[in-house]
Amino acid sequence: MNKDTLAISCPQDEETHLATLSVHAGRMVDEATGSVALPIHMSTNFERGQDEGYPKGFFYSTFGNPNRAWLEEAMVKLEGGSAAIATSSGMAAIACVLSVLAPGDRVLAPKDLFQGSARLLNDQFRQWGVQADFFDPRHPGELESHIRERTRMIWLDTPSNPLLRISDIASVSKVAKAHRCWLAVDSTLATFALQQPLRLGADVVIHAATKFIAGHSDVVNGLAVFREQSQLFKSAESFRANLGAVPSPMDCWLVHRGLTTLWIRIQRQSQTALRIAEWLETRDEVDKVFYPGLQTHESHKIAREQMDGGFGGILAFILKDGSRSATRLVNATKLFTKASSLGGTESLIEHRSTSPIQILGNGTGQQIPPGLIRLSLGLEDADDLTRDLERAFEALGQSQTA
Ligand SMILES: *Cc1c(COP(=O)(O)O)cnc(C)c1O
Description:
Blueprint: H1 18-24, H2 66-79, E1 83-87, H3 90-98, E2 106-110, H4 115-125, E3 131-135, E4 151-157, H5 169-178, E5 182-186, H6 191-194, E6 204-208, E7 222-226, H7 231-243, H8 249-281, E8 286-290, H9 300-306, E9 314-319, H10 322-332, E10 337-338, E11 348-351, H11 356-360, E12 372-376, H12 382-401
Parallel strand pairs: 2-3, 2-4, 4-5, 5-6, 10-11
Antiparallel strand pairs: 1-7, 6-7, 8-9, 9-12, 11-12
The structure holds pyridoxal-5'-phosphate.
Pyridoxal-5'-phosphate binds next to α3.
């Protein structure tokens, strides 16, 4: 289990597909017992050798443990990177990536940045002298005009949560290079199964593994994968240790298991999302549907170019008569669970603007449209989910005429 020999015997050549790698990367049959499932090593500390060294490459779990190393090894392979960090949450991964910025530096982020990232920039990084500027990802031509002298990083969320906006990673990466900025992409809604930001020029890709990657609504975890073993990676790795924002071995094991089924889960979730999005567009009660797989989505063409295998399991929509009906609709579904978060096997529905986190505000002044309903599609039958929504719409109509 020496760290150097962690490169597991995954039968791999140039033609090996990522779906195959996701089953095998970072895995091997356990030498000590022959167990096929990875063992979980809960130990916080590791024995030193005669020479005072650490013969197996681990000394204290904050700095590394076998389950975390296997998961990181798998992620490096799957994203085509050079180094990875697994963290205690998606937010911890984001904070670790931002830690490379020094006082006076600026980060350029989309206006509909994930609310947690926006709060982190506003509540902590601003007081440390790091300023955030915001651009509209729907107008990529304007990106360059927002770059200032000290802009050191461009941040993208694509598809974004919960407005499902799409940023063109390859073209933004050209701008980032021209201005010597790091390009960071939060790819939580797509995952490596549908989108590969490092191969499109990003310097780091971030995941809330809590969502689709772990995939069962039972673990909070984050991942960041770096194109090079750069200063960006070194800063993130050091901040994780200094902050102690490390995931438990058990959580790493759960996330690693999630990798093996991600492909079939997210492809199925994407098919269901597309079907329901198309169906919602036909409903009289619905004003607008947000889903990058729809022909009517403002950035469908870019989404089709940079995503492969589906457009993800998340969609949002707005009802014609806004917030009041939204509350009634989310209370009328039976199969959809009314809850926050996303990416699990069970379908979820949420009236976003009433979530505690939205009410908190994010410091950017950006507001989620009041009637916005977000769906996270799970693994139920798409017909059953559609019928559940249909019944909820009918109940809405009845209570309106009553
Ligand atoms: C949930 C989420 C995060 C934060 O992840 P946590 O594990 O909850 O800290 C970051 N980015 C996006 C897009 C998310 O959906």
